[in-house]
Design brief:
The complex is a heterodimer. By secondary structure, chain A is an alpha/beta fold. Chain A has 14 helices and eleven strands. Chain A has a single domain (about 5-220, about 285-330), classed as Luciferase-like domain (TIM Barrel). In chain A, the strands form two sheets. In chain A, strands 1, 2, 3, 4, 7, 8, 9, 10 and 11 form a nine-stranded parallel β-sheet that branches. Chain A has a two-stranded antiparallel ribbon with strand order 5-6. The longest helix of chain A has 18 residues, at about 220-235. Classes of the chains: A alpha/beta, B mainly alpha.
């Protein structure tokens, strides 16, 4: 049975995020993902607050990266949280966002290697090992916790490109696929399957999550309006081959990019077409969203993550998902 | 202003509606910086225990709503027919 996750960006103050987290837990969501960007509030402070106010939801960074945060620190933070919550913690890790990393002068070198080594170190140190590691990206000369870590923490790999997706299938306990359209998700799952096969596992042994940009409202116009800003940024950041796959005019995407750079929101958002919304979000009335999620499930996903913007009114949107969408898939 | 006393005089059938409106005001407010952390934690504690509609929960919500969104709060009381209470809040609310 499919699980539902929800993502929050800690740009909002803690009390709003935690209000929604409690609401989501009560409404049947099983996973809570908090994004990790240096320019928002800190992910681990937010997760700790979530730990205090929730009882059963599984949660973790969605996703952190090995460039801004050394994997030893990530391991320390999550091992501590895992102790606090008696095993409700997971790690979401990916290569990070190139633009954000560059803005703080961090170069995204050897992304696949960096993520692989970070996961290696994370797993070793959280299992209590004294880690001597001589990798291409990371080196440790005997790193060991002075406390006993409590249990295994599942690792989800955030992935988009074919190599990272295959790697995620190979080493991950889960994979977070950054895609919304059935065509993209189907392709991504096929890459994950390659990795799973190479590792001698079965697809149902890992948690395959579609990490989507989502917007729901009873009024489709309101759902679309909320999705447009997020979609405009996704379109602007998508490579030409992805745009072409969805028959989106590359020139139009370039115009949106230019408008966003110039902070001309009206022009940027006004250029977003229904095709773009369909390609890069799961958006519409609850019935429309159910239809799209059902399509995505055919690809073999086991978790559906509701990501930003969630809806025009987040509280109302969580209620709609809890009352209309989740029960449809649990029946 | 003694918010608890004021809440005690709100007719029970209107408490749920009011609580719902105040939560919406707070969650959609752009005046996040006016929320005292202690008050935020009190609200979350009540929400965690599903007792935001209790008198103590509603008191915390009202106190926060008056700080963050005084005009909307006064408007909600007026719309619910609680005009006397709306006037009391108006007298004590921070000027916007």
């Amino acid at each position: 049975m499919v699980k539902f996750g929800i993502e929050f960006v800690p740009r909002e103050p803690h009390w709003k995020i935690i209000y929604y987290a409690i609401q989501a837990e009560r409404g049947g969501f099983s996973n809570l993902w908090i994004t990790d960007h240096f320019n928002n509030r800190n992910v681990y402070v937010t997760l700790t607050t979530a730990a205090i106010y929730t009882n059963k939801i599984t949660f973790g960074p969605g996703v952190t990266n090995p460039y801004m945060v050394n994997p030893v620190f990530t391991a320390q933070a999550l091992a501590t949280l895992n102790e606090l919550t008696q095993g409700r913690v997971v790690l979401g890790i990916g290569a990070g966002d190139k633009t954000t990393l560059e803005s703080v002068g961090v170069e995204m070198q050897k992304p696949l290697k960096a993520v692989q080594e970070a996961i290696d170190i994370f797993r070793k140190i959280t299992s209590g090992e004294n880690v001597v590691y001589n990798g291409e990206v990371f080196k440790t000369a005997g790193a060991k916790f002075l406390f006993k870590p409590r249990g295994k923490i599942p690792v989800y790999v955030g992935a988009q490109g074919p190599k990272m997706l295959e790697f995620a299938g190979k080493v991950g306990d889960g994979v977070l696929i950054n895609a919304c359209h059935p065509k993209d998700v189907e392709y991504a799952v096929s890459c994950v399957k390659e990795g799973v096969k190479a590792a001698g596992k079965k697809l149902n042994e890992i948690d395959v999550a579609a990490y989507t940009s989502f917007s729901v409202h009873e009024d489709i116009k309101k759902a679309n309006k909320a999705a447009v800003p997020v979609v405009s940024f996704i379109v602007a950041g998508s490579p030409p081959q992805v745009l072409e796959r969805h028959r989106i005019d590359v020139k139009k995407a370039e115009e949106i990019k230019e408008a966003l750079k110039a902070n001309d929101w009206g022009r940027a958002f006004g250029s977003v077409t229904p095709e773009m919304i369909s390609a890069f979000s799961v958006c519409g009335t609850p019935e429309m969203c159910i239809e799209r999620i059902a399509e995505l499930l055919k690809s073999g996903i086991s978790q559906f993550v509701v990501g930003s913007p969630i809806g025009a009114n987040v509280r109302e949107a969580i209620n709609l998902i809890s009352e209309k969408i989740i029960p449809h898939f649990k029946a | 202003m003694d918010y608890r006393k004021l809440v005690e005089t709100i007719p029970v059938p209107k408490q749920e509606q009011l609580s719902d409106r105040l939560i919406d005001f707070l969650l959609s407010s752009k005046n996040d910086d006016k929320m005292p952390s202690q008050l935020a934690n009190t609200i979350l504690h009540h929400w965690q225990n599903d007792i935001l509609i209790s008198e103590s929960g509603l008191t915390a919500l009202l106190e926060a709503a008056v700080l963050l969104e005084p005009d909307k709060t006064i408007g909600a009381f007026t719309e619910l027919g609680l005009t006397g209470m709306a006037e009391q809040i108006k007298q004590s609310a921070p000027k916007t």
